[in-house]
Amino acid sequence: MNRLHVDWTACDGRGLCAELLPELLVEDEWGYPAPRGEMSVPPALEPAARQAVDRCPALALKLTRVSAGRAPGSS
Amino acid sequence: MTSTVEAPPGSRVQLRLLAGSNDGRLDSHLAQHGRLPAFDTSQVIGMARDAGLTGRGGAGFPLWRKLSAVAAAGRPAVVIGNGAEGEPASGKDRALLTYAPNLVLDGLQLAASGTRSAVLYAPLGAHRALRELIDARRGAGLDRVPVRLVAAPDAFVAGEESAAAAAVAGRAAVPADKLVRITESGPGGAPMLVQNVETLAHLAMIARYGPGWFRAAGTPDEPGTFLATVSGAVAAPGVVEAGYGVALGDLVAAAGGATAPLRSVLVGGYHGGWVPADAALPVSRAALTPYGISPGAGVIVALPRTACGLLETARIAGCLADQVAGQCGPCVNGLPRLASTLSDLAHRRARPGLPAEVDRLARLVTGRGACRHPDGTARLVLSALRAFEADVAAHLAGRCLAEEGQR
């Protein structure tokens, strides 16, 4: 299953992703996307997720394959 | 700054990194520890794994796994000793770079075995002494890998792993998105390994005295000693060293003892949380997990009973909100709002739903930044709501338990 990833350093809160993917994302009070729950994308929402990724004006939204083991945050 | 207080019998307070003359000199270092034996990369990974050495910068990630990831990248890595220490309540990295810098530089060489480039990322004020020492070590034929000094800005997030990597690559020292791991490809393309300077110093000790020796301190699951910076209502604030699992009261005693009855203790620093002032509480990941925290980078702040925990937390949250890197919308907007809302509660500007609003904002910012600054700030604030629940109720009624306790 794929997972949504937001590059928060790039996101400027245009809000398109929350409009295109209301099942997964909601806008916070400043217009930035907030996850409703998990950020994993069920197969049925895959096309909408891809559309949201493609249309993000800041190129901040990405789909990543869920893999075991995340990178450590800091030493 | 180091503790000179005798450890109580049975205490885990124990000097290792800071057991020497602590004059920072190369001749005293060599007289005490001798030259560093030579090891190849796989031997360094093996000894780090056998010792169970974890990162001392806060996250506690096993060193050997990061070393393995960098080795697996198959390209020459840049190895960075991280002495930035942006946490205001922490002084242990500065103490280490002053008192035992040769252990740090030894450990940097070990971590950099198999590479060609090592960096010590440290506050500019420490550079002059470090430069002289690096030159002296190079002149004495100690260091195979040349060491470059890079200035760490005095900012909370400048010590975060990806911020350190960015600074070393010549960019602004701010955190980056984590989609690509820097152990695979850092800014500039080369794999990067960022290790806290204390972790490197422990590695230098393990190389000489062995993983078994290292494991004689601490607990079976959390071996070794760690440096703690103890401050607040203690007679001799400073840096002490102890094995993981040390009783909180023993750490406080090693810092001269409490100067007043304590209300609570902040463990893990500004991204940590409040625990009861229970002298018997072990300072270990296992014992602190129920409080949602870990020993982190070893910061301990004792809060006297005469101080209000909500006011103190609001003050810290305000500091943290001022220290956002300014890159991520939820953090830039959310942390100031979280801090000001908590400040309203702390200053008894009560309105309906105030604690619930603090709680909501803390959860709203969590997980929504390039680094863990929003998460850590939220963790601290949420821990205050739990630890000072009675104070919250009193503040909503226009009263303050700390004030009333003073009378």
UniProtKB/TrEMBL annotation, chain A:
Highest taxon listed in the record's lineage: Bacteria
Gene3D superfamilies: 3.30.70.20
One Pfam family it belongs to: Fer4_15
UniProt name for this protein: Ferredoxin
Origin species: Paractinoplanes aksuensis
Automatic annotation (TrEMBL), chain B:
Assigned keywords, A-Z: 4Fe-4S, Flavoprotein, FMN, Iron, Iron-sulfur, Metal-binding
NADH-ubiquinone oxidoreductase 51kDa subunit iron-sulphur binding domain residues: 314-395
InterPro entries: ComplexI_51kDa_subunit (IPR050837), Nuo51_FMN-bd (IPR011538), Nuo51_FMN-bd_sf (IPR037225), Nuop51_4Fe4S-bd (IPR019575), Nuop51_4Fe4S-bd_sf (IPR037207)
Domain NADH-ubiquinone oxidoreductase 51kDa subunit FMN-binding: start-end pairs: 49-203
Signal sequence coordinates: none
Known cofactor(s): [4Fe-4S] cluster; FMN
Protein name: Proton-conducting membrane transporter
Family: Belongs to the complex I 51 kDa subunit family.
Superkingdom field: Bacteria
Pfam families, A to Z: Complex1_51K, NADH_4Fe-4S
